[in-house]
Specification:
single chain, alpha/beta, Anaerobic Ribonucleotide-triphosphate Reductase Large Chain, ten-stranded mixed sheet, three-stranded antiparallel sheet, globular
């Protein structure tokens, strides 16, 4: 008898079910009737090429949903071919498709005590989704209620043994998962090393060689029609004889990328030549043991063991091996680190096998050949108007959502039979949250403060305690998970460990205290109910990246992350774009005791500067409340680690998060982070040093420009002879071309003359009436630049100095290659760069023709949108230009009257709203304006703008695309 069949029989015999409590709804009133609906036109364009990439008009959404949220849901989650009658056109249809499937699953499997409970479940789930209180992960929205397989999981863990059949099966299973838009991870440590013999007498290839084939397969499936780049996690144990080769694999490839880029090849992420580089489709992680970490501390040797016999075949210096891991992470952010003993100390089903791997974002860790279904709550929805946390409602919503998540396993489909069997037998779930950073700021807590960590820990404890409490109640109704009997002692032991960690919390204020009291009561019930009935789920909680679904819920922050920046970019109904200071800031200032006049002055300062330093009237001791992931007061690396440590003891799984370090960070800094993560009890950790990777598009060439500057500096040190410049005059008869242009409605002419070899030697600018002051200034400027060119000043130097200058006239141009210009100078030197510099030089500065951008989009993008949001999605990837109701050519200033209610009430809202430059298309680019340097993030290949971090991934604010994690 299968587990599901047994559950049905048990429910039929007992004639009982779960009673569902009303939380938000009113008897006799459907949730849809309580909101105001409005029709919207969703038109999404690539701002660089001007191409319309999506258009659906007349879609129906609540009036309080933001433009970004409705755009992302329409483009990502509405099913049916565009332009046909079967295409979904309303949020009602989407929610009904999912919720009614869950209700049917609950009825069919005996979950509800009565029909009334089933109806309350339907209405409460609908209300919570409608009001953005929580969201399921993306595969639920893609698949549930459609004719497609009902895949609900975003995270998968595979397994591979030391045989060719198993290795080839690994390739096949990964391929099917990637085809569906999801990601998978696995541990390769069972495969014999390249230092061991085969049974035939030959030498084994080793796991790294087989990684090459899997990486090529992932890249091929991605370019052959998947929705985004494949998401992979590859793990190798630290005692594997090939561990050093594994550690250095991606660092060596990064050196190759740099060399090929300098030779003129297109090595941008998504570029046509990047495919020649290996191992770029996976995240790599080293699984370290406590034994190894203690050897690092002691400075002793560590044994690498044969896979077949377990004997030590080589001894290495533990500190040297650890240093190589840290150096590789410093060079290219890979590999990450996973702490094996900590992971398995918190393992609820050890009798069924060890936990050896994770999903691509490292938040889901469980048995091989398993999957995890995710959902996340929007924490800011539980903050009352009086700035207190609605603890009781939070617990009720957790119990409602975990019930729905468990029901989904009853009707879900899985990519392989082995994954389906394991998931149905262990029923792993991953409830989590988003908007923690916004909640901390709104309540006056610094992300790096003890108070902030205490509040986060208490909320996480209640989250998991409430989830396991409901899991034990479900076990009483429909039975525990099939593998519970053999793992009962271990599972109950882990529950007691969670309860003990909760008992050690010392809440510093009343808000934390109330949450902690609820959590303590929940954990007491978890232990008691579990001892009596067991548990329905082997795992209950993770903290995922919440990329796309974070935007669906109008969250300001994703997962456990702090706020990205104090000032954000926002699209408006009608096509305009605005700079917004979040409403969380005045809310926090009011909480800290500031008066309205002071708040207005501080907000104005933030809107102008992008940070709080020297804000009028703001006390320096309050600066920490407004620290963000980026900016003048960026949160420290150990601040990120300690926040993770505050939450980790209360999670079944782990945390998707990258610890960011500045470019100036050293290898020793990364070593400190890795050691501290182990000491503080984390399960996994990944680091990213700013500008450490070459193979990703940056707005201005980033490290490329710095490499050239460093090379020039080295050359200058070696040479002591100083040469005087010599002017190379133009020939009497020379070739020239004249370009007419219009910038922001103002017309002009650019005439450029060349030497016989085609090199630019002079230019003339005609702008304004002859004899006017402006015309005279243009003549003088043209002469100065021409003389500089003739004395050997490289054109690219002028391009670097004069592009991005901002002054009027600015805006749209009539040039298809340079659609927007911040000034006449910006346009002129972009045009000159396109006409007279080679591709390599101008690509470093982010200057491309329309044809080149289109070709890059075609070769590097991923067909439609079906990512797995290990969210969800994630994960992680970011940025884009989405637009509703207006064509891309509409000027932002034409839309200043369209700052509608949805633009100041969604998410955290807006305290200060102002127009932004038409060159800015995302929060990452807005941060560049404040910081004066480029954000180290990839481009959204759908929309063409900068993405921003979400957990260990990147997500696009406009279209919801992610960088590929889970």
């Amino acid at each position: 008898m299968t587990e599901t069949t047994g559950a049905r029989a048990d429910a039929a015999r007992a004639d009982r079910g779960v009673h569902i409590e009303r939380i938000f709804t009113t008897p006799g009133v459907h949730p849809y009737d309580e909101v105001t609906w409005e029709q919207r036109d969703v038109v999404q364009q690539n701002w660089k090429t001007g191409a319309t990439i999506f258009e659906q008009r007349g879609v129906l959404f609540p009036d309080f949903w933001s433009l970004n949220a409705s755009t992302i849901v329409t483009t990502k989650y509405f099913r049916g071919a565009l332009g046909t009658a079967v295409r979904e056109t309303s949020l009602k249809q989407l929610i009904d498709r999912v919720v009614l499937t869950y209700v049917k699953g609950g009825r069919d499997n005996g979950y509800f005590a009565s029909d009334e409970d089933a109806e309350i479940f339907e209405h409460e789930l609908t209300w919570a989704l409608l009001h953005q209180v929580f969201s399921f992960n993306s595969p639920v929205w893609f698949n549930v209620g459609t004719k497609s397989p009902q895949q609900v999981s975003a995270c998968f863990i595979l397994s591979v043994d030391d045989s060719m059949d198993s290795i080839l099966n690994w390739y096949k299973e990964e391929g099917f998962i990637f085809k569906g838009g999801s990601g998978a991870g696995l541990n390769l440590s069972r495969i014999r090393s390249s230092k061991e013999l085969l049974s035939s007498g030959g030498t084994a290839s080793g796991p790294v060689s087989f990684m090459r084939g899997a990486d090529a397969s992932a890249g091929t499936i991605k370019s052959g029609g998947a929705t985004r780049r494949a998401a992979k996690m590859v793990v190798l144990d630290v005692d594997h004889p090939d561990i050093e080769e594994f550690i250095e694999t991606k660092a060596r490839e990064e050196d190759k990328i740099r060399a090929l880029r300098d030779a003129g090849f297109d090595m941008d992420l998504g570029g046509r030549d990047i495919t020649s580089v290996q191992y770029q489709n996976a995240n790599n992680s080293v699984r370290v043991s406590d034994k190894f970490m203690r050897a690092v501390e002691a400075g002793t040797e560590f044994g690498l063991t044969a896979r077949g016999t377990g004997e030590v075949i080589e001894s290495v210096d533990a500190r040297e091996l650890f240093a190589k891991l840290n150096k590789a992470a410093w060079e290219c952010a890979d590999p990450g680190i996973q702490y094996d003993d900590t992971i398995n100390d918190w393992h609820t089903t050890p009798e069924s096998g060890r936990i050896t791997a994770s999903n691509p974002c490292s938040e889901y860790m469980s048995l091989d050949n398993s999957s995890c279904n995710l959902a996340s709550l929007n924490l800011l929805k539980f903050l009352r108007d009086d700035d207190t946390f609605d603890t009781a409602t939070f617990q009720k919503v957790v119990e409602l959502v975990i019930t729905a998540m468990d029901i989904s396993i009853c009707f879900a489909d899985f990519p392989t039979e082995a994954i389906g069997e394991t998931t149905r037998n262990y029923r792993q779930l991953g409830i989590g949250y988003a908007n923690l950073g916004a909640l901390l700021m709104a309540t006056g807590h610094g992300y790096e403060s003890e108070g902030g960590r205490s509040l986060a820990g208490a909320i996480t404890s209640l989250l998991t305690g409430a989830a396991y409490k409901r899991s034990a109640e479900l076990a009483e109704v429909v039975g525990p998970y099939a593998g519970y009997a053999r793992n009962a002692d271990a599972h109950q032991k882990v529950m007691r460990k969670h309860r003990s960690a909760n008992d050690e919390l010392r809440p510093p204020d009343s808000m934390d205290g109330e949450i902690h009291r609820y959590a303590s009561k929940a954990w007491k019930q978890v232990v008691e109910l579990g001892a009596a009935h067991g548990y329905r789920n082997a795992q209950a909680s993770v903290l995922a990246p919440t990329g796309t679904i974070g935007f669906m819920m109008d969250c300001d922050t994703t997962g456990i992350e702090p706020d990205f920046s104090l000032v954000k970019f926002k699209k408006l109904v009608g096509g305009g774009s605005m700079q917004i200071v979040n409403q969380t800031i005045p809310r926090a200032l009011k909480k800290l005791g500031y008066q309205q006049e002071q708040i207005e002055a501080i907000v104005e300062h933030i809107a102008d500067k992008g940070h709080v330093i020297n804000a009028p009237g703001l006390k320096p001791e309050h600066y920490e409340v407004f620290d963000c992931a980026m900016g003048e007061r960026a949160i420290s690396a150990l601040g990120h680690v300690r926040m993770m440590a505050a939450c980790q003891p209360f999670l079944s799984g782990a945390i998707s998060k990258t610890v960011n370090l500045p470019e100036t960070a050293t290898v020793e800094d990364i070593a400190e982070v890795h050691l501290e993560g182990w000491k503080l009890g984390l399960k996994a950790l990944a680091v990213y040093r700013d500008n450490c990777k070459v193979g990703q598009p940056l707005s201005d060439g980033g490290s490329t420009a710095k490499d050239k500057a460093a090379a020039a500096a080295d050359a200058a040190v070696e040479k002591v002879i100083e040469y005087r410049p010599v002017r190379k005059r133009m020939p009497k008869r020379r070739t020239s071309q004249t370009t007419s242009f219009a910038v922001g409605g103002a017309e002009g002419y650019l005439t450029a003359g060349t030497y016989d070899d085609g090199q630019l030697g002079e230019l003339f600018l005609k702008f304004g009436k002859q004899g006017s002051t402006l015309a005279g200034m243009m003549d003088a400027f043209s002469i100065a630049v021409s003389i500089g060119l003739q004395y050997g000043v490289p054109l690219e130097t002028f391009v670097e100095k004069f592009t991005n200058l901002r002054f009027e006239p600015a805006g749209l141009t009539d040039d298809p290659d340079v659609r927007m210009a911040q000034s006449i100078m910006d346009y002129v030197f972009r045009r000159l760069a396109l006409d007279y510099t080679d591709f390599e030089t101008r690509s470093f500065m982010g200057i491309h023709t329309a044809e080149e951008r289109t070709r890059q989009l075609e070769t590097g993008s991923y067909a439609e949108a079906t990512e797995a949001d290990g969210d969800e999605d994630v994960a992680g990837e970011l940025e884009s230009y989405s637009q509703s109701a207006a064509p891309s050519s509409k000027r932002p200033e034409q839309s200043t009257s369209t700052v509608a209610a949805e633009d100041i009430t969604s998410g955290a809202g807006a305290a200060d709203v102002r127009e932004v430059s038409s060159e800015i298309h995302s929060s990452a680019e807005l941060m560049e304006k404040f910081q004066g340097k480029s954000a180290d993030a990839p481009m959204c290949m759908t929309c063409g703008t900068k993405m921003r971090p979400a957990g260990s991934c990147y997500v696009c604010e406009g279209c919801g695309s992610t960088s590929g994690c889970s």
